[in-house]
Amino acid sequence: MESKTPLSPHIQIYKWHISSLVSICHRITGIINIILITLICLWSSLLLFGESSYGNINFFFNSFIGKFFILSITWSFSFQVLSEIRHLVMDFGYGFEIKTTKITGLIVIFGSLILTVVFYLIGKNFF
Amino acid sequence: MVQINLPENSKTKKGKYFKDKTGSKNLRKVNIYRWDPSIGENPRIDTYEVDMDNCPSKVLDILNKIKNEIDPTIAYRRSCAHGVCGSCAMNMGGKNGLACTTSHAEIDGDIDIYPLPHLKVKKDLIGDLDGLYKQYQSIEPWLKSSSNSETTEIIQSKQDRAKLDGAYECIMCACCSTSCPSYWWNGDKYLGPAVLLQAYRWIIDSRDEERKSRLKKVADELKLYRCHTILNCTSACPKGLNPAKAIAEIKKMLATSNL
């Protein structure tokens, strides 16, 4: 039944803040990670088909797009892990004060970026 | 289900523009959501130029000024004007709050005023809260005790009473529930922060004897676990309460007690 009364605007008008942003990113990265883990499993199972098929993917990962792809994966995993730790702490009933959620949210956002850079440098044998 | 777009009949369009007639130099534009059930058109956003030199500090003062001096047709709920009754809950500058306690100086730029999000609109800024009240009724928000204790006073220690602090102050203004994306999209099943905070208030009351059945009742995938700690509720609460923490406490109680 199509109701005559309108529905008041919701996501269109509601202001974003740090913890709602972290929450939605947690969901998005979660979905991305499930797909990516499947891809990584496929990649490693390509070993069974011999060196050349494995090498094809390696070639892709060494291209510019491939590197961008890997960096994105690294960020997505870092974000998910940090955000999951935040969720775990919350499940114990801690960190619900507005100020704390802002700080932990910022830690998740910037921490994931820092971790991405660190992983990149580790991959480059920087350390 | 997640529904990002508004239904066709709910899309807003530009409405009337009320130009300032006082000649004041200190003007602010106030955009207000308007919908009149007797016309049957889509909702519109009317813009008012308000003279801020002669306007007290709260958003409710702006609304009163508009209703008294510019446009008497505008409809909104208000009663106590002191943040106690919860009538004037609405969305101001993209955040839910009480119009009577939200200072308009906090809002940058034009002041956008909408009804509480994702409710059926009755008129202008008045949303339909029937669903929420039914859910509130469903948690049976009253003291339940066996008949033999009904004739005498039920004593509560100071420590047990202190547990209710932060839960009993709720004025059921619905700012939190209508700020919650989970509640927007599963409001028919998910109880929402306001009602869960009240459920928590009765679960932890030492005088109540139905703790276990209360917990069992609320232990439901949709009623309780739709909370994903987005924390819009806690940041919206005009009384400074923490519904998200109360929900986490209920989850914790369910995880640690065997029912």
Task: For this entry, give a set of tags.
heterodimer, A: 127 residues, mainly alpha, 3 helical TM bundles of succinate and fumarate reductases, 74% helix, B: 259 residues, alpha/beta, Ubiquitin-like (UB roll), Fumarate Reductase Iron-sulfur Protein, Chain B, domain 2, 2 domains, two-stranded antiparallel ribbon, 8 strands, 27% helix, elongated
Structure write-up:
The complex is a heterodimer of chains A (127) and B (259). With 127 residues, chain A is mainly alpha-helical. Chain A has a single domain (20-123), classed as Fumarate reductase/succinate dehydrogenase, transmembrane subunit (3 helical TM bundles of succinate and fumarate reductases). Chain A is built from 4 helices and no strands. Chain A has helices spanning 18-45, 51-62, 64-91, 98-123. In chain A, α1 (18-45) crosses α3 (64-91), α2 (51-62) packs across α3 and α3 (64-91) packs antiparallel against α4. The N and C termini of chain A lie far apart (64 Å). With 259 residues, chain B is an alpha/beta fold. Chain B folds into 2 domains: 8-127, Beta-grasp domain (Ubiquitin-like (UB roll), Roll); 130-256, Orthogonal Bundle (Fumarate Reductase Iron-sulfur Protein, Chain B, domain 2), CATH 1.10.1060.10. Chain B contains 8 helices and 8 strands. Chain B has helices spanning 59-70, 130-138, 158-162, 181-186, 192-203, 211-218, 232-236, 243-256, and strands at 13-18, 27-34, 44-51, 89-92, 95-98, 111-114, 121-123, 126-127. In chain B, the strands form 2 sheets. A 6-stranded mixed β-sheet of chain B has the order 1-3-2-6-4-5, covered by helices on one side. A two-stranded antiparallel ribbon of chain B has the order 7-8. In chain B, α5 packs across α8. Chain B is elongated, with a radius of gyration of 21 Å. The mean pLDDT of chain B is 94. The interface between A and B is large, with 29 and 45 residues.
